[in-house]
Design goal:
The complex is a heterodimer of chains A (287) and B (354).
Chain A (H helix, E strand, L loop, with lengths): L2 E12 L2 E12 L3 E5 L6 H9 L5 E6 L8 H4 L3 E4 L11 H11 L5 H9 L14 H13 L5 E5 L7 H15 L5 E5 L3 H4 L5 E6 L2 E7 H7 E7 L2 H7 L4 E5 L2 E7 L3 H4 L4 E3 L3 H8 L8
Parallel strand pairs in A: 3-7, 3-8, 5-6, 6-7
Antiparallel strand pairs in A: 1-2, 1-4, 8-9, 10-12, 10-13, 11-12
Helix pairs in contact in A: 4-5, 5-6
Chain B lengths: L1 H18 L1 H26 L3 H19 E6 L10 E6 L44 H26 L2 H4 L3 H4 L6 H41 L4 H4 L6 H32 L4 H20 L3 H8 L25 H24 L4
Antiparallel strand pairs in B: 1-2
The chains are: A alpha/beta (287), B mainly alpha (354).
C-alpha cells in the first residue's frame, strides 16, 4: 500500500514538556485512522507536525513533501479541520466560498453549494449568525468539496449534540470517503467513529501506546465476560485490562486464542473505547 | 499558472478589503461625501465654502483687480516687527498688464530675523503654489484624507495579523494553500498601495466636487465659473503630484508599516504596546547612556514629514523631489522593512497562537 504519511522520531517539546515524544508513524493510502488519547496526550501537536503548523525534531514526509517547508503546496492535497468554530466570523457564507474558490485549485464550488443546499446555511448569512452545528456543516461542506488525498480532522465535532455528530460522520463516510482517500480523525467520541475506522492509534503522554489496524485488533485482542467462579480463573490469566460488569468481570487479553478462553465465559471483540481504557491504564476517556 | 497566481492575489486582496470594509472603503467615501455635503450647505446658505471660500474670493478679487486697482505691499522693515501694512491704491488709468503676469519671476523678501525667505512664483517643481491657483485649496482636502489614511492604515496593520490569532480563524486560513509570504506580502501591499489607492480616489472625488461647488459659488456671484475656477486649477499636475507624492511617502513609511505588521504578529495582548514600547524604551536608553538621539532621528525621518512645499501634515504633496532625498536613510529603512517582514513571516509560520 502506498504510504501517505511517514514519520520517524518526531518530537515536539515546549520547555521541559514533550508534547510529542519520539513518535514513529506510517499511514497508508485509503486508511481511516482514529487517533485517540486523553486531553494533553499530544494528539493535536502530532497532527500539527503533519500539517506543518509547528516546528519539531525528527522527520515527517507527507505525500513526498516536508510539511515544515512546503505547507502551502501541501495544502493543495491535504485538507483539515483543526477545531470547531474556527471559520472567520466576520465573513458571509458566500464570501467564504469565494475565498476558497479563489485560493484552492482543487475546490469544487458547485459541490460545496450542493452540500449546503440541504442545510439552513444560506449564502448571505454571516458566519457569526450560524449555530455551532451549522458552522461545522459549512466547514465540512467546504472540506468535502476539495479533492484532497488526505483529510485531517482534529476534534471536529467537539461540543456538538449527538444528532449533529452522527450526521457529520455519516456524511463523511457516504459523501467523501472513496476507499482511496486517507482520513485521520482525532476524537474523544470513540464509539461514534469506531465503525468507520480501519486503523486505530492510542496516544498518552506524547507517546504512541498502540497503533494497529481494526482487523489486527480483532485477531489479537479478546474480551472475556466471566461470571461467578470463572472470574478468579480468568483474572489469573495475564490480561491487559478489566472492568466490572453485571455479575462478574470483563477482561481483555492480548495474544491469547479466543478458543482457549471460551470455557470461562462469553467471548467478544473488545470495543475501541474499552481497549483504550485497558491499554492506557484505566485513565478516563473523556466525552 | 500565472493566471492562477493573479487570481489568488486578487482573492487575498479582496478578503482584506472585505474584512476591513468599514475603514478601507466606507471611511474615505463617508469623509468625501461629508465634506461635499458640508461645502454644499455652505455654498447654498452662506455663500462661502468655509476656508475654501476665502481662497476663491482671493482669486476672484485678484482677477477683478487686474482691471481696476494696483496693489502695493509695503513691508515694515522695522527689526523684529510682525506688523505689515498693505495699501491698495486706485490709479487713474489701466495698470501695466506686465504687473499682473504671475508667471514672471518676482521675489518676496520680508525681514524674518536671521532667515531670508525667497519665494519664486512659477518656479519649477512648485507649480501648485502659482499665485491665484486653487491647487493648494484642493490639496487641503487631500491632506485631510491622507491623515485619516494614516490612522486607518496603522489600525489595519496592527490588527491584521493579530485578530485572526485571537479568534482562532488562523487555523482556517492555514488550511488553504496560501503561504505565509503571500499572506504577509498581501497585507503589506494593501497598506502600501490598495488602501492609499482607495483614499486617493475618494480624495480626487472630493476635490472634483469641491471644484464643482466652487463653480456654483462663483456662478451665484454672477462671475464666469469656467474662467475663475477651472482656469485656476491644474488638474493634471495636481493628480500626478498627489499620486507620485504618495509613492515617495510610502517608500519612507515602509519600515514603519513593516514594524507595525511585526508587532501585530508578535503581540499576545496589545499590538499597539508591542509597537510603541520598544521604540520609546530604546529612545530613552540611548538618551540616558549614550546621550545621542539616533533612534529618535531614524524614526522621525520615516514618519510623514515636511517637504518644504507648504503641506500641513508633511506628506510629499507636491510631487517627489528625488534629488533632495536622503537615499542612504531611505535604503536603510527599506532594509529594515525587509528584515521586519522576514521575522513576521517566520512568526506567522510557527508561532501563531496567542
Amino acid at each position: 500500500m502506498k504510504k501517505i504519511v511517514t514519520a520517524s522520531g518526531v518530537t515536539r517539546a515546549f520547555g521541559q514538556v514533550r508534547a510529542v515524544d519520539h513518535v514513529d508513524l506510517e499511514i497508508g493510502a485509503g486508511a481511516v485512522l482514529g487517533l485517540i488519547g486523553p486531553n494533553g496526550a499530544g494528539k493535536t501537536t502530532l497532527l500539527r507536525t503533519l500539517l506543518g503548523l509547528t516546528d519539531f525534531d525528527g522527520k515527517v514526509d507527507v505525500m513526498g513533501s516536508d510539511p515544515r517547508t512546503e505547507r502551502a503546496s501541501l495544502m493543495e492535497r491535504v485538507s483539515f479541520i483543526a477545531d470547531t468554530a474556527v471559520l472567520p466570523r466576520w465573513m458571509r457564507v458566500d464570501q467564504l466560498i469565494d475565498y476558497v474558490s479563489g485560493t484552492h485549485p482543487r475546490f469544487d464550488r458547485e459541490l460545496a453549494e450542493n452540500f449546503l443546499r440541504s442545510t439552513e446555511v444560506t449564502p448571505r448569512r454571516r458566519i457569526r449568525q450560524l449555530s455551532k452545528g451549522m458552522m461545522v456543516q459549512l466547514h465540512l461542506a467546504l472540506v468535502m468539496a476539495i479533492d484532497a488525498r488526505l483529510l485531517v480532522l482534529d476534534e471536529p465535532t467537539l461540543g456538538l449534540d449527538i444528532l449533529f455528530r452522527k450526521r457529520f460522520f455519516e456524511q463523511l463516510l457516504n459523501d467523501y470517503f472513496d476507499g482511496e482517500r486517507t482520513i485521520i480523525i482525532s476524537t474523544h467520541q470513540v464509539e461514534e467513529v469506531q465503525n468507520i475506522l480501519t486503523e486505530v492509534m492510542f496516544m498518552n503522554h506524547g507517546q504512541v501506546v498502540l497503533h494497529k489496524s481494526m482487523s489486527a485488533i480483532e485477531q489479537e485482542f479478546v474480551e472475556l465476560h466471566a461470571v461467578g467462579e470463572a472470574v478468579a480463573r480468568a483474572e489469573s490469566i495475564p490480561h491487559v485490562g478489566k472492568r466490572t460488569i453485571l455479575g462478574g468481570k470483563a477482561l481483555i487479553y492480548e495474544g491469547i486464542a479466543a478458543e482457549s478462553l471460551a470455557p470461562l465465559g462469553e467471548i467478544h471483540t473488545p470495543s475501541v473505547s474499552d481497549l483504550f481504557v485497558a491499554k492506557v491504564g484505566g485513565e478516563t476517556v473523556h466525552g | 499558472m500565472a493566471n492562477q497566481q493573479s487570481h489568488q492575489l486578487h482573492t487575498l486582496v479582496q478578503r482584506e478589503v472585505q474584512e476591513y470594509r468599514n475603514s478601507l472603503v466606507w471611511t474615505p467615501l463617508t469623509i468625501a461625501a461629508t465634506l461635499a455635503f458640508v461645502m454644499l450647505l455652505s455654498v447654498l446658505f452662506a455663500n462661502r465654502i468655509s476656508a475654501m471660500g476665502d481662497v476663491i474670493m482671493r482669486v476672484i478679487m485678484e482677477d477683478h483687480a487686474v482691471h481696476e486697482v494696483n496693489i502695493t505691499i509695503n513691508v515694515d522693515e522695522e527689526e523684529r516687527s510682525v506688523q505689515r501694512s498693505y495699501r491698495i491704491e486706485r490709479e487713474e488709468g489701466l495698470s501695466d498688464e506686465r504687473e499682473w503676469d504671475f508667471s514672471r519671476g518676482w521675489t518676496f523678501k520680508p525681514d524674518t530675523g536671521s532667515t531670508e525667505v525667497e519665494v519664486v512664483a512659477g518656479s519649477a517643481g512648485n507649480e501648485d503654489e502659482v499665485a491665484g491657483s486653487l491647487n493648494p485649496l484642493l490639496n487641503m482636502v487631500h491632506n485631510f484624507m491622507l491623515m485619516v489614511l494614516l490612522l486607518v492604515s496603522a489600525n489595519y496593520l496592527l490588527g491584521c495579523l493579530f485578530n485572526d490569532r485571537r479568534d482562532r480563524s488562523i487555523l482556517f486560513w492555514k488550511s488553504m494553500p496560501v503561504s505565509e509570504w503571500q499572506e504577509v506580502a498581501c497585507k503589506f501591499m494593501v497598506a502600501m498601495l490598495v488602501a492609499p489607492a482607495i483614499f486617493i480616489a475618494a480624495s480626487a472625488l472630493a476635490q472634483v466636487v469641491s471644484a464643482l461647488l466652487a463653480m456654483l459659488l462663483v456662478w451665484r456671484m454672477d462671475k464666469d465659473p469656467f474662467e475663475l475656477v477651472l482656469g485656476h486649477i491644474q488638474f493634471g499636475s495636481l493628480l500626478f503630484n498627489q499620486v507620485t507624492g504618495w509613492l515617495l511617502t510610502a517608500l519612507w513609511l515602509a519600515p514603519v508599516y513593516a514594524w507595525l505588521l511585526l508587532a501585530s504578529a508578535v503581540a499576545r495582548r496589545s499590538p499597539f504596546m508591542v509597537a510603541v514600547a520598544p521604540v520609546i524604551g530604546l529612545f530613552v536608553l540611548e538618551r540616558l547612556f549614550l546621550g545621542t538621539e539616533y533612534v529618535g532621528a531614524a524614526v522621525a525621518s520615516h514618519l510623514p514629514h515636511g517637504n518644504g512645499g507648504g503641506s500641513g501634515v508633511g506628506f510629499y504633496m507636491h510631487g517627489p523631489d528625488w534629488a533632495s532625498q536622503d537615499l542612504a536613510g531611505l535604503g536603510l529603512g527599506l532594509l529594515f522593512a525587509a528584515a521586519a517582514l522576514w521575522v513576521t513571516v517566520y512568526l506567522r509560520r510557527y508561532r501563531f497562537e496567542l
